[in-house]
Amino acid sequence: MSEIKYFTEEGLQRLRNELEQLRTVERPHISHQIAEARDKGDLSENAEYDAAKEAQGLLELKISKIQDKLQNARIIDESKMDSSKALLLSTVTIKNLKNGMQMKYTLVPEDDSDLKKGKISIESPIAKGLLGSEVGDKVEIVVPAGTIPFEIIEISR
User: Fold this and answer.
1) What pTM was estimated for this model as a whole?
2) Could you read off the pLDDT of 47-76 as tens digits, one per residue?
3) CATH number, domain at 52?
C-alpha cells in the first residue's frame, strides 16, 4: 500500500486534471500512433511501433502512479493546524545568521512546490529543518553546501 499524500485543494485538482488529460488525450493519441505503426507492416523491425509501445507503457505507468496518489490523497485542513509553529502551509520568514539575509518560504506538499514562488516542499532539507519551530527559534539546517544557522523571524498562514 502506498503512503498517504497530503494536498491542498488546488494541488489535488491539478492532479485530477492531469489524470483526465492523460486518459482522454494522451492515451488515445498513443493508441492512434500504435495503429499507424502496425499498419506499416512487419512489426519485428518496426522502430515506430516499438517507440509507440514504449511510450504507451510509460504513459500507463504515469497514469497508475497518479491514480495511486489520488487513492491515498488527503486534503489539508488549515483550520485545525497550530499557527504558532512552522507546519505544512505555513509561510516562514527566516534569517540566515551567517550573512544576515532574510528569506520567506511557504512549506507545501511535494507536488505543490515552486521555488520561484517561494513554495518549498516539506521534503526539502530547509523545510524539514523548519518544521515544528516557533518564532525566535534558532535552527541549524543541513543542506548540500553545509550547515546553515537560521533564526525564525515570522510564521503566518
Assistant:
1) 0.67
2) 888 888 999 999 999 999 999 989 988 888
3) 1.10.287.180
